Amino acid sequence: MTRPVPPFEKSVFINCPFDSDYQDLMLAIVFSVAAHGFVPRTARESEGDPEPRFSRILRMISQCKYSIHDLSRSTGEGGDNLARFNMPLELGMVAAFRFDREMSEQTPHRWLALVPEGYGFHA
User: What is the pTM of this model?
Assistant: First the structure.
């Protein structure tokens, strides 16, 4: 079943962890977006679709005027020190829109990156 696509001007793609440790922050972001009259969207809404995840997320980002990317937990954690590479990758997908002249003229995208304090993200 195809879901209706929310209006571009009101759509906000949220790129955050989905685990239980992050749930309160995720709910706060979703609530804040919705309370200001925007439509929160995440990769979860297309789970189960047969299209590859990368394509689904790229399509969803292109349908949103805004996005929020929380990279505070994209580094490795735990015994296996496994990093969450999908979150910086999704931010990179958004940044690529700025370099695609045709796409950026058709669908201007504004994004916010949330990063931890310190020197891990200095250029």
Answer: 0.79
